[in-house]
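Encode chain A's predicted structure.
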Amino acid sequence: MPSSPPRRLIAVMLLIPLVAALALWAFAWPAARIAPRDLPLGIAGPPAAADPLASGLERDHRGAFELHRYSDEAAARRAVESRAVYGAVVAGPEGVRLLTASAASPVVAQLLTQAVTARAPGRTPVPVVDVVPTPSADPRGGVLGASLLPLALAGIVTGAAVTVLGLRGTWAALGLTGAAAAAGVAVAALAHSWLGVLTGDWWAEAGSIGLTVLAIGAAVAGLATLIGRAGIALGSVVMVLLGNSFSGVTSAPELLPAPIGAIGQWLPPGAGGSLLRSVAYFDGSAAGTPLLTLSLWAALGLAAVLAGGRISKPAPAGDDPVAENRTATAVPVG
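Encoded structure for chain A:
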């Protein structure tokens, strides 16, 4: 029996503030607590010059940096280019300079510049070399961060459409895969060919985008197959409210409160943002883990969809009780 209007009114009045509070917690709390936490940072140079610098950074920024030692600037540069570290401080007799990669995170590049400058005598400006810069069409790196929510929404819409349209089994899997592939091509055409904000291999970018959409869409459709259409709502909450806000794509996972940053990388939006950044700016370096994460989400979602299609086969015509009832009550003619 439907609940009375007063009860429905009370439910709405309680539900909306709860949803608003949950959304504010998911999006505003990580943003308000941004700070480096075991942020990978390289230290290069002879021990006589590098050791005091490393000790000073560890003392002044306890727990902020995870320091990696390199013998010289060339080794530190390779580490930055391979995404092993976000930047590197090179110390030598001539002074200190900083290697950054704004393409990995403009926020981190700025943070490192401030931290290293604070260690310089008299806080004099430290020479900064941007080893992997953001593209000139997106100098602040804002487009990549802004693109994650549309990709999450595209995946949710794909999974919801497959469910609502009644596609099952193989047809549902084909619909999810085809829509994701088309989304990858369309977004790559816009972001790479038109806007010029992605500068890597075109097909690798399209594949990364398509796999992100597929992982999200398959997860939503798989949940809907397992628990009904409530799975669409559950998948939407996980992918947008948690996945997008915990992704760290606008800053860095290491800047988010623990364990938020790690959780975000286990969800498709965060993994998709990391994968796209790797293929767009770093020639695929450090792409293995996010690629595996997205593939697992896509495989599990598609497996649930395919399994559900085998279980929920339509009943044969002879087993339709409505049809049997119509036959039994039909009045013979003649």
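The first helix runs from residue 5 to 32.
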